[in-house]
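User: Can you model how S-adenosyl-L-homocysteine sits in this protein?
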Amino acid sequence: MIFLDLGSQPLANEYLNKKNINKPEKKYRLLVDFNNKNKIVSIKKKFSSETMFKNNYPYRSSMSKTMKTSFKNFANEIKKKYKPKNLLEIGSNDGTFLKNFNKKKSLGIEPCLNIANISRKKNLNVISDYWSRNLAKKISKKYGNFDLIYSANTITHIKNLDEVFKAINILLSENGLLIIEDPSLLECIKNNTYDQFYNEHLYVFSYISLSNILKKYDLDIYKIQNVKQHGGSIRYFIKKSYKIKKIHSSVSLQYSKEVKYGLHKLQTYKKFANRVKKSKIKLRKIFQKILENKKRIIGYGATAKAVTILNYCNINRKNINFFVDTTPEKQGKFIPGVKIPIKKYFKINKKIAEYIFLGAWNFKNEIFLKEKKFLKLGGKFITHVPYPKIIN
Ligand code: DWN
Ligand code: SAH
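Assistant: Here's the modeled complex, given as structure tokens:
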């Protein structure tokens, strides 16, 4: 049942350049669906990995200190607690997580060649291919099976989940541990972060929906960790069903939180959709007022998420003069759909703009620290999370 219509959207991460900015852009209707049987929340139009993840992918995990630190800390926790004899990461990107492990005992899967090559420069062992049973069989022949398989913000990007988990079962050792880390649907719905929905996020998992999916593959979640990354994510600790000794209390706690909030009911998503419509009206009003007062706004963090917001709320370069971003692959380009230019990051001061729109709201604390002078001198931030407001 479709519960949210976020309008006609371009593909996020398909940044425009001076050559193609006036050419027609590929667009699709961003419709969000709730399946009342398996409780999965997904976007209706599911693009293939090959369409979205090519050899010019513009996202690097290492562009935020928050993610570098969280991956480093979690890697240390894994080494200490589980002492895996080897480790496979699906969606290893630029190696920000993988580089914390012994290079001879770890392997990354990263289909985007430009990003995979950044990992290879760190002497990491990375295969540039899309996750599949064929690939798993090839890896199994060469490396055998894996004690620990980790995947963050990737499995929700892959259309065919049946293929994903059948391939994982080929490689996961008998007592192996699978850890999946993804944005929490509960946090997304509670905080009205509707920008978590875009073409790469084919799914946004809840414990309820992921546990329903895993049942078909004799895999069970035996522990949950709620973490702050990306506006609130969940780490699911998963083992082969018949190998589980004890289900951790964090699982029943997460289940009851999700049921209490109503993640198993269509009504909850209809209420969310109403809040999203109100959020759009309120955010537009904030921008309108600032412009009437002849103040200037720039954007901070040209995120994939921001593409949804800006195109849904029709906020373009009349409202935001430009975005700053630390990612080399995004600088000098334009945000898809709304065509707002993206500049190389520089320290913001009030001579440039009085307001900053938080595209990367999930890194608010890191950004406020970096721009504390701007705030101290009276600069203000605009955010839509959990509702549109000005932060000073
Ligand atoms: O799921 C995904 C997540 C992991 O990353 C992918 N589908 C694509 C991507 O989504 P996103 O673009 O919404 O992710 P981030 O991590 O919220 O993007 C942050 C952006 O902000 C990056 O382009 C880097 C930039 N940034 C910056 O310019 N200055 C970030 C920080 C912290 C900063 O200080
Ligand atoms: N794990 C990193 C990167 C997440 S971005 C982090 O959490 O920061 C999503 C990553 O998944 C990209 O690097 C993309 O290339 C990769 N990816 C997308 N589809 C994939 C597929 N079918 N198989 C393997 N990796 C894939």
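A couple of observations from the model: The chain is about 35% helix and 25% strand. The chain has two domains: 2-33+267-391, 40-263.
User: Helpful, thanks.
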